[in-house]
Write a structure and sequence with these properties.
- By secondary structure, this protein is of the alpha/beta class.
- The chain folds into two domains: 162 residues, Ribonuclease H-like superfamily/Ribonuclease H (Nucleotidyltransferase, domain 5, 2-Layer Sandwich); 44 residues, Arc Repressor Mutant, subunit A (Orthogonal Bundle).
- It has nine helices and five strands.
- The longest helix is centred in the last third of the chain and has 25 residues.
């Protein structure tokens, strides 16, 4: 029996990609993940995530990562209700990961408030039969999903680190980080429009742009 865990990283961020990762493991090897101490990536230090990722990749049959760029997210979000459209995009992307890894059972961390609806949205994008277990907090309940959350988080952290190297301190990329907001504010005042690595459809980004435009109008 081949089991896959699928999870995301960066869903609520205003800067950087939304990363979806899947980890495929033989059912008999699942206890190895537990023995490693695999848990939800948010509960681990960056160093511990790096250590565990190396061990996870040794145990896994395969893993697969898809990064959704801000422009792709903006395009989908701006054509309808933000949360609903983002959920559908995530479900479609998780389906692509599952399609690539071809498991017998797929455990996914449900992004929709209705876990069963999220399961249906994934299933309708698959071309083969697979048992889908869609639950909230799956990254806490199932080590195979925890493993996917670790791989996804590391990939997103790499993307943020690359942006930091090019553009200085951008914070963690989430609107709750004052450094991120400060970076966006400075950028929009200087250049009048956002770079490709910013989700322009996000409310904090829109608010800062409107504020900068109003200030420019007053000065002109």
């Amino acid at each position: 029996m081949r089991v896959v865990g699928v999870d995301d990283a960066g869903r609520g961020a205003v800067i950087g990609p939304l990363v979806i990762a899947g980890v495929l493991i033989n059912e008999k090897d699942l206890p190895k993940l537990k023995k490693l101490g695999v848990k939800d990536s948010k509960l681990l230090s960056p160093h511990r995530r790096e250590q565990l990722a190396k061990e996870i990749k040794k145990i896994a049959l395969k893993y697969h990562i898809i990064k959704l760029a801000p422009a792709e997210i903006d395009k989908v979000v701006e054509t309808g209700r933000k949360l609903h459209r983002l959920n559908r995009l995530e479900a479609q992307t998780m389906a692509k990961v599952i399609e690539t890894l071809k498991p017998d059972i797929a455990y996914v961390d449900a992004s929709d408030v209705l876990a069963d609806r999220y399961k249906l949205h994934i299933a309708e994008n698959l071309t083969f039969e697979v048992q889908i277990v869609s639950e909230h907090k799956a990254d806490v309940k199932y080590p195979v999903v925890s493993a996917a959350s670790i791989i996804a988080k590391i990939e997103r952290d790499k993307a943020i680190a690359e942006l930091q190297e090019r553009h200085g301190n951008i914070g963690c990329g989430y609107p709750t980080d004052p450094k991120t907001i400060e970076f966006l504010e400075n950028w929009i005042q200087k250049f009048r429009s956002y770079p490709e690595f910013v989700r322009k459809s996000w409310k904090p980004a829109k608010r800062l742009k409107t504020k900068a435009e109003a200030k420019q109008t007053r000065l002109s």
